[in-house]
């Protein structure tokens, strides 16, 4: 009964983790969290019956580092919207190009990798942009991690968050 999952939200309604009912009661009792949604279960004590929490929100903000997106072909194509960064053609048949070639000191990192069609990649070859007389449509950058859930003005997001599946 005390092992039922409880969704823990940050002060800004960002999902933090899932804890058990016992931990949720400790947070609520210490005034470190507020109850947003109740569970269908009821916890009985000798003197009272308490509805079990399903979703709680911390009263303080827990700062978390932004998740980093892993460098992969799929993520580079997604960042560049499956578009060649030299000519602008959209295709599912793209290659990865090092803006500064590896043998010229170019590194295998977000800021040096772009999606390119076969024709542009072949035309550029192992030359720099200046030598190949080519330019990029957009400067390559590392993508930002996923954005936290934001509180919408005039709406109570806990109703929507309570409908999320609780991992467990």
How widely separated are the two ends?
15 Å
- Binned, the helix content reads 10-25%
Kindly state the number of beta strands. Answer: 6
What would you call the shape?
A: rod-shaped
Helix count from the secondary structure assignment: 5
**Strand order, sheet with most strands:** 2-1-4-3
Query: What share of the residues does DSSP label as strand, in percent?
Result: 25-35%
| Total count of domains | 2
Largest sheet: 4 strands, mixed
Q: Which spans have pLDDT < 50 for at least 5 consecutive residues? A: 147-160
* Helix/strand/pairing category: alpha+beta
N-to-C series of helices and strands: EEHEEHEEHHH
Mean pLDDT: 86
Radius of gyration: 25 Å
What does this structure look like?
18% of the residues lie in helices and 26% in strands. The protein is an alpha+beta fold and 168 residues long. The protein has 2 domains: 60 residues, no CATH class; 60 residues, DNA Binding (I), subunit A (Orthogonal Bundle), CATH 1.10.30.50. A hairpin with a 4-residue loop joins β3 and β4. The longest helix is centred in the first third of the chain and has 9 residues. The protein is rod-shaped and about 80 Å long. It starts with a strand and ends in a 7-residue tail after the last helix. About 8% of the residues have low confidence.
Short structural description:
This protein starts with a strand and ends in a 7-residue tail after the last helix. The protein is of the alpha+beta class and 168 residues long.
Which labels suit this protein?
single chain; 168 residues; alpha+beta; DNA Binding (I), subunit A; four-stranded mixed β-sheet; two-stranded antiparallel ribbon; 5 helices; 26% strand
């Amino acid at each position: 009964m005390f092992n039922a999952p409880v969704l823990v939200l940050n002060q800004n309604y960002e999902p933090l983790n899932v804890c058990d009912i016992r931990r949720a009661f400790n947070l609520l009792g210490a005034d470190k969290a507020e109850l947003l949604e109740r569970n269908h279960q009821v916890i009985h004590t000798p003197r009272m019956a308490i509805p079990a929490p399903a979703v709680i929100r911390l009263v303080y903000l827990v700062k978390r580092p932004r998740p980093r997106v892993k460098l992969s072909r799929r993520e580079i194509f997604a960042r560049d919207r499956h578009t060649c960064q030299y000519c602008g053609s959209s295709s599912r048949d793209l290659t990865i190009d090092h803006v500064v070639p590896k043998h010229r000191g170019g590194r295998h990192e977000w800021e040096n990798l772009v999606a390119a069609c076969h024709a542009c990649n072949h035309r550029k070859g192992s030359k720099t942009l200046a030598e190949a007389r080519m330019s990029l449509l957009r400067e390559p950058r590392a993508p930002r991690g996923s954005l936290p859930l934001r509180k919408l003005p005039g709406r109570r997001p806990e109703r929507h968050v309570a409908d999320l599946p609780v991992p467990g």
